[in-house]
Design brief:
It is a single chain. The protein is α/β, with parallel strands linked by helices. The protein folds into 4 domains: about 220 residues, no CATH class; about 90 residues, no CATH class; about 100 residues, no CATH class; about 120 residues, no CATH class. It is about 55% helix and about 10% strand. The chain has a 6-stranded mixed β-sheet. It has a two-stranded antiparallel sheet with strand order 5-6. Strands 9-10 form a two-stranded antiparallel sheet. A hairpin with a 5-residue loop joins β3 and β4. The longest helix has 21 residues. The relative contact order is 0.08.
Length: about 550
């Protein structure tokens, strides 16, 4: 039997301790490493935390004796004497925020008690070194805002800081939530009763909310512990793990630079958005990988090829800026932005195009960028929307094509490769004849192409979805006696859909064709105005209209094969 490698967690010393002990006995500070995630708890997470605390308090009464388990905390005592908090910052930061609200609430009644809260759990003072000790210090992106919002006392000259990034807003929201929750809890009580209620909340939090703290003095194996805990389902994120890996591999003098470069990556609004970017970045360069195995795949390649931390962080930072422009459709190329805006209309299913669009944006420029991205969109519409084929094989083709483009392939070869996989003209026409779509953005994008084709050289900027709606010619909810026999099969067919201004749409909602004709005739959209010339509307006429539309598919979604 092969010798089993020692599990890094086995050399760590786990022990159970209350939140108050973690905060009160910490000198030096508990420090969240700069490669760790920003504060990320949303109001729903904070609300669960609060409800659990209040449930425990109500159950235990005025003299609580039990305990409530909050999870695990991982702390590494470094050779320099710092305590690095590898896991648990969300719970500890949220606890500190609640304590700051209680501190401010009780100050007017018992200033000494508020001062004790401040010095014991939030900011102590080292009389030997003559300096303040922040009990909890967040990462480089959050620490100053957290200090000014939570840690410092709110005297008469206090001025609340302005949030700058998404995690700052989350910290502010958490503080605001607790201010409201405490206010509701003590509403209608006397000043003394308010103080006692606040102290009971604090006692339950500090003395009876417990964690399993895992301590070590082995800084070098901290990353391995971090990853092992992740494998055991504690829920550490890919961005956290990857930052840890890259910082650990960097030379000491490079680490500040790595942290600074990662600012562009971590400034996406959520962990999920960061993870999406990282996956799309990787896919556009190295091939498809599923989210659950993303970190392991990146780690394998980074270690096997000894990829430099600064080089990788620089590439990630540059690509994050590009990716943000793609998401916002706000690049310097107006025509490319139009393609990006149309991609967004197709919703979540079109996200498979983002790694390819990122590769195109970083590889080709000028007319080729618009040509390649337009062709990519046309392939997607034919394959995934009109023919309604499964996306996995298409992903393999387009991801391989963009990787080849990044190495040395031409734009022409890229277009030829992806176009050959798309449904043919005949297949696309046939599929369109029976096409039914429920996703509003997708059918709106398709109808816009037909409207623009009718106008040919005439410029038109069709207004946003809030102003121009998709209208069902035969209504979604027909009145009694007007329902078609095959209602469910026909109502969302493309031949039964048009575009109409929101104002006119409200006037004729769920009306029959005769009631809608006057609104159709007032429309500035040619495809809609043409409907008003008809004498009526039926399943036969709808099929006829859709067949005529189908013949236009090869022209409206052309493929570039040369």
């Amino acid at each position: 039997m092969a010798k089993q490698t020692e599990n890094p967690v086995s050399s760590y010393d786990p022990k159970k301790e209350p939140i108050g002990q973690l905060l009160s006995l910490t000198n030096p500070s508990l420090i969240v490493p700069d490669w760790q995630r920003n504060y990320s708890w949303k109001t729903e997470h904070v609300e669960v935390f609060w409800n659990d605390l209040i449930f425990f308090m109500d159950r235990e009464g005025p003299k609580p004796k039990g305990e409530y388990f909050l999870g695990s905390v991982v702390i590494v005592k470094t050779q320099s004497g710092d305590y690095k908090l590898l896991d648990g910052q969300q719970r500890l930061a949220t606890s500190a925020i609640l304590l700051s609200v209680i501190r401010d609430q009780i100050k007017s009644y018992k200033p000494n008690a508020a001062d004790q809260f401040q010095s014991q759990f939030l900011v102590g003072f080292d009389h030997v070194e003559e300096k303040s000790i922040h009990k909890l210090r967040l990462n480089v992106y959050d620490k100053e805002y957290f200090r000014r919002l939570i840690l410092i006392e709110r005297d008469g000259d206090y001025e609340e800081p302005t949030p700058q990034i998404s995690s700052h807003y989350l910290l502010h929201n958490t503080r605001t939530f607790f201010e409201g929750a405490i206010s509701d809890l003590i509403s209608g009580l006397s000043e003394k009763e308010r103080f006692e209620k606040c102290m009971l909340v604090a006692r339950c939090l500090l003395n009876h909310m417990t964690v399993i703290s895992v301590y070590s003095t082995d800084e070098d194996s901290a990353a391995e512990v971090f990853e092992t805990l992740n494998d055991r389902g504690i829920g550490l994120s890919t961005p956290d793990l990857l930052r840890n890996l890259i910082i650990r591999r960097a030379d000491e003098e490079q680490r500040d630079t790595v942290v600074e470069l990662w600012q562009e990556v971590v400034s996406f609004e959520t962990d999920g958005a960061i993870k999406n970017f990282l996956r799309h970045y990787w896919v556009s360069r190295y091939g498809d990988v599923k989210s659950q195995s993303l970190y392991r795949e990146i780690k394998r390649k980074v270690e096997a090829e000894k990829i430099d931390s600064i080089a990788l962080s620089t590439s990630l930072s540059d690509s994050a800026a590009s990716y943000r422009m793609l998401l916002g459709a706000n690049t310097d190329d107006a025509e490319f932005n139009k393609v990006l805006s149309e991609v967004k209309e197709f919703g979540a299913s079109s996200s498979i195009l983002l790694p390819v669009l990122l590769g195109l944006f970083e590889t080709v420029s000028g007319p080729d960028l618009v040509i390649c991205s337009s062709n990519l969109l046309n392939v997607f519409v034919r394959h995934s929307v009109i023919a309604n084929r499964e996306n996995s094989k298409l992903e393999n083709v387009i991801y391989a094509a963009v990787r080849e483009l990044r190495s040395d392939a031409s734009a022409q070869k890229f277009n030829k490769t992806i176009s050959e996989y798309a449904p043919t003209d005949a297949e696309s026409v046939s599929a369109f004849k029976k096409l039914s779509i429920t996703h509003n953005g997708s059918r709106r994008a398709i109808l816009k192409r037909f409207e623009l084709d009718l106008r040919q050289t005439e410029e038109l900027d069709i207004a946003s979805p809030s102003r121009v709606h998709v209208e069902h010619i035969y209504p979604q909810k027909p009145k009694e006696g007007e329902r078609w026999e095959d209602h469910g099969r026909l109502v969302n067919r493309l031949g039964n859909l048009t575009l109409l201004s929101a104002r006119l749409n409200k006037e004729i909602k769920n009306g029959n064709f005769e009631l809608k004709k006057p609104a159709f005739s007032k429309s500035e959209l040619l495809m809609t105005k043409a409907l008003a010339a008809g004498a009526g509307w039926s399943a036969v006429l709808m099929n006829s209209r859709q067949e005529k539309m189908a013949k236009k598919v090869p022209v409206l979604w052309p493929l570039l094969k040369e």
